[in-house]
Write a structure and sequence with these properties.
This protein is mainly β and 338 residues long. The chain has a single domain, classed as TolB, C-terminal domain (Neuraminidase, 6 Propeller). The protein is built from 2 helices and 24 strands. The strands form 6 sheets. The protein has a 4-stranded antiparallel β-sheet. A 4-stranded antiparallel β-sheet has the order 2-3-4-5, with no helix packed on it. It is globular, with a radius of gyration of 18 Å.
Length: 338
C-alpha cells in the first residue's frame, strides 16, 4: 500500500529530476507527429489569450514554468528567475506567508483574463509548501513575464492536483486521493470548503462553465469525465466513460472539452511507467467531449515512447492539438486536427 500511494503521488509530485531547458532544440517528427522540444515534464499547458505565447508547467523537483513561442516553437524558463520581483497582495492573500522560490514543483495551472484585460495565472505548487501560487502576467515587454502576488495554502493533509479560477472570484482545486478524493473551493475571507457531490476516486483535471454552474472533472480512477452541478440543490452528477484515465481537462476553441490522459492494461502498468520507466504497454490518448450532451470521441491515440512518455494534457493551438506529458520527457507533442 505504501508503494502504491507513493506512485500515485507522482501525479502530484515529481518522480524524476532532470536539468531545466531554456530553448527548444531541433525536433525530428515521428511520422505525422511534430514536437516542441525544451520544457521538461510539461504536465499542464495554458494559452495566453490573443498572443503567440503558451505557458507549460515542468512538474519536476526544482521545476519551472516555461514560456513557449507557438510561432517558432522555442521555449525559455519563465519562473522562477533571479530577476523576479514579488508584489504581495496582502488584501486578497493575507494568509500567505510570502514568496518562496525554493523547491518549486509546479503542477496544474489555470490562466484567466480579468475585466481590465489583465491575465492571471494560478499554479498548483508542491515542494517547499503545498499551495496555489498566484501570478500576474505582464504583457508589456517583448515577452511576457510573471509577478508573484500571493498564495493560498492547502488545508492540512490535502494535496492538490489541478486548479481553476471561478467566474465570481475564488478558485477550485482537485484533491487527488484514492479512493476518497474531492474538489475544494476557496474564497478570500472564507477559506476552503468541500464541494458537495464531488467525492470520487482520484479526481484529477478540472474546468468550470462560464456561468459557474457546472464543474467538469477528470475521474482518473473510473476513466470518466464527471459533470457536477455547482450551487444547485439537489446536486446533479453526470458522467461519460472514456477509453483512458483522464488527467487534465481543457476547453477547446469550438466549446468542447479536451480530456487528455493515458491508459495501460491495468492501473499498475501506469504506475510502473511513472516509477520505473516501464512504459511499453502505456498509451497517451485525448478524447473530445461535448459539455452539454457528454458525447465523446477519441481523437488521439499515441503509444508511449521516449518522445512522449505519459500524456497528461491537451490544448488546441491553431489547427493542432498539443499534448504535454510527464515522467522526465522534454517535449510537447503536436497532432494535426483532422
Amino acid at each position: 500500500m505504501r508503494l502504491r500511494l507513493l506512485l500515485l503521488s507522482c501525479f502530484t509530485l515529481s518522480c524524476l529530476m532532470t536539468a531545466p531547458s531554456t530553448a527548444a532544440a531541433a525536433c525530428e517528427a515521428d511520422g505525422a507527429v511534430q514536437f516542441v522540444c525544451g520544457p521538461v515534464s510539461p504536465e499542464d499547458l495554458a494559452i495566453v489569450p490573443e498572443s503567440p505565447w503558451l505557458i507549460a508547467s515542468g512538474m519536476e523537483d526544482d521545476g519551472y514554468l516555461y514560456l513557449v513561442d507557438t510561432r517558432d516553437y522555442s521555449s525559455a524558463v519563465l519562473y522562477p528567475l533571479p530577476s523576479a520581483q514579488p508584489r504581495h497582495d496582502t488584501v486578497s492573500y493575507g494568509d500567505c506567508p510570502g514568496p518562496n522560490m525554493s523547491a518549486f514543483r509546479p503542477h496544474g495551472i489555470n490562466l484567466t483574463t480579468g475585466a481590465d484585460g489583465a491575465h492571471r495565472l494560478y499554479v498548483v505548487r508542491h515542494g517547499a509548501r503545498e499551495s496555489i501560487e498566484v501570478f500576474d502576467i505582464d504583457m508589456t515587454g517583448a515577452t511576457p513575464s510573471l509577478t508573484w502576488i500571493g498564495c493560498v495554502l492547502a488545508p492540512e493533509a490535502v494535496v492538490f492536483n489541478s486548479v481553476v479560477a471561478l467566474p465570481e472570484g475564488g478558485i477550485a482545486a482537485t484533491h487527488f486521493q484514492m479512493p476518497d478524493g474531492s474538489v475544494r473551493e476557496w474564497h478570500s475571507g472564507r477559506g476552503w470548503s468541500q464541494v458537495p457531490g464531488s467525492e470520487t476516486a482520484g479526481p484529477n483535471g478540472i474546468e468550470v462553465s462560464t456561468d459557474g454552474r457546472w464543474f467538469y472533472i477528470g475521474g482518473w480512477a473510473n476513466r470518466s469525465l464527471i459533470r457536477l452541478s455547482r450551487g444547485q440543490t439537489p446536486v446533479q452528477v453526470d458522467t461519460v466513460n472514456v477509453s483512458h484515465h483522464i488527467d487534465n481537462v481543457r476547453w477547446a476553441a469550438d466549446g468542447s472539452l479536451l480530456a487528455a490522459g493515458h491508459v495501460g492494461p491495468t492501473p499498475d502498468s501506469v504506475f510502473a511507467c511513472l516509477g520505473q520507466g516501464q512504459c511499453d504497454e502505456v498509451t497517451s490518448r485525448v478524447t473530445r467531449v461535448n459539455p452539454d450532451t457528454l458525447g465523446a470521441q477519441q481523437i488521439v491515440d499515441y503509444p508511449s515512447n521516449e518522445l512522449l512518455i505519459l500524456g497528461t494534457v491537451a490544448i488546441q493551438v491553431g489547427s493542432e492539438i498539443w499534448v504535454g506529458g510527464i515522467a522526465g520527457g522534454d517535449r510537447i507533442a503536436r497532432f494535426a486536427i483532422e
